[in-house]
Amino acid sequence: MADLTCDVAIIGAGTAGLAAERNARKHGASTLLIDPEFAGTTCATVGCMPSKLLIAAARSAHGARQAGVFGVETGEVRIDGPAVLRRVREHRDRFAQATRDGIMDLPDEIRVQARARFTSTTTLELDDGRTVAAKAVIIATGSSPMVPGPYADLGDLALTNETVFELDDLPESLAVIGGGVIGLELAQAMARLGVRVALFDREEMLGQVRCKKVHAALEEAMGQEMALHLGTDPQPSEQDGRVRIDWDGESDTFDKVLVATGRPPNVKGLGLETTGLALDDKGMPQIDPETMQCGEAPIFMVGDSNAGRPVLHEASDEGAIAGRNAVAYPALVRSERKVNFAITFTEPPLVAIGDSPDDSAKIGSADYTDQGRAKVDAQNTGLARLYAAAPEGRLIGADLFCPGADHMGHLLVLAIGQKMTAGDLLDMPFYHPTLEEGLKGALREICHAVPLKVPGDHDTGNPPGV
């Protein structure tokens, strides 16, 4: 006889787990939310929020240095590293505490502070000796930084996104290993805060960018702020209390190294091998993205733990999908997933939306190096590429690296989700002078390529300065 029983057991109290528990209980299930720490979400503690706090400080420093462009003289910009990091931690801690307070508002009988592992498809063993029997189980164990052995051997010289914000002061120099979302965001922020930064990646492309033209703009912009070493195999070692990086016959030394080589799912020690699920060579089951079900079992996997769409809004959606289906099992309800939408908060932002273009797709480009509002703000960098399906010109995706891309991305996600054509979007008013106005050229390019007839009462020209 199990010590604890419930309809739905949720392993992990991050964004996905909290959403899963909430929706399962909303649909009438008895629930247990199992977590070893209840420390708060990855976003609040070591992810979205502290990184954006550091980026905000970097933006302020960069703006002060660039003020002379507008005839505003500020004098020498001095960065108080300890003060920067204190503010990051103070606000981070408030976000994290608000999350923990929300968890503590849950009924005591729902919260189970322990580490769980499967002993069969629907039974769990806790590290405090108790056992759990559930009708369905939702895995929401998140992910953790991957630190390859040579970097782990460096001890405190090696940082991850989970330790970098605990620094007392900014390092004078920093090697960043990995040019994905975390690497790019923190590398640029550190560089703008006066840290000498070098970024290394084995791949030739930064940020998993799908479009070569957008990547060229990204690489050029990042290369102006830090040293880029792409397509290299950096080898770390400790030298006189610092980090030495060797690559392609060259070497350099740094105060610290930030390891941003990925965050694989936390599945080790979960006992998935006892569930009867077929597992791949990484110990992962097959997951249906429309139900979040693992194989045919009453087991569901959500959020970063499934390595599908590792962003917060998707984790929340997946938790809700799994919460409902765990209650409904075996009568599952398939959910139509939202348009893919990912933002890397570099400056300007890097945004990927929807699908990549195939050979039949029509593409429109908007160059922001000469766009009116971008030039007014001295932010004229990058471009936007919009993709549409032929023959109707329906928008299917976009890649942007340009000022305001994080906001324009929401406009494009809406358009794609509503199955709008390039002509439909051109029918909307574009205020002058705005960054959104720069998209009109790309939309017209698609219309001409499809072709879509532009109504006779539409002005096909541009106001001055667009």
Tertiary shape: globular
Task: Calculate the terminal CA-CA distance, rounded to whole Å.
Answer: 71 Å
The stretches of 5 or more residues where confidence is low (pLDDT under 50) are none
Mean pLDDT: 96
What fraction of residues sit in β-strands?
A: 15-25%
What does the main sheet amount to?
Answer: 7 strands, mixed
Helix content: 25-40%
Strand elements, count:
20
The helix tally amounts to: 12
Structural class estimated from helices and strands? alpha/beta
Instruction: Give the radius of gyration.
Output: 24 Å
Please provide a written account of the structure.
This protein has 466 residues and is an alpha/beta fold. It is built from 12 helices and 20 strands. Strand 1, helix 1 and strand 2 form a beta-alpha-beta unit. Helix 3 packs antiparallel against helix 4 and helix 3 packs parallel to helix 6. The longest helix has 24 residues. The relative contact order is 0.12.
SSE layout and pairing:
Elements: E1 4-11, H1 15-26, E2 31-35, H2 42-45, H3 48-66, H4 81-104, E3 111-113, E4 116-118, E5 123-126, E6 131-139, H5 149-152, E7 158-159, E8 173-177, H6 181-192, E9 196-201, H7 212-223, E10 227-230, E11 235-239, E12 242-247, E13 250-254, E14 256-259, E15 299-301, H8 312-328, E16 341-344, E17 350-354, E18 362-367, H9 372-376, E19 383-389, E20 394-401, H10 405-417, H11 422-426, H12 439-449
Parallel strand pairs: 1-2, 1-6, 2-3, 6-15, 7-14, 8-9, 8-14, 9-10
Antiparallel strand pairs: 4-5, 5-6, 11-12, 12-13, 16-17, 17-20, 18-19, 19-20
Helix pairs in contact: 1-8, 3-4, 3-6
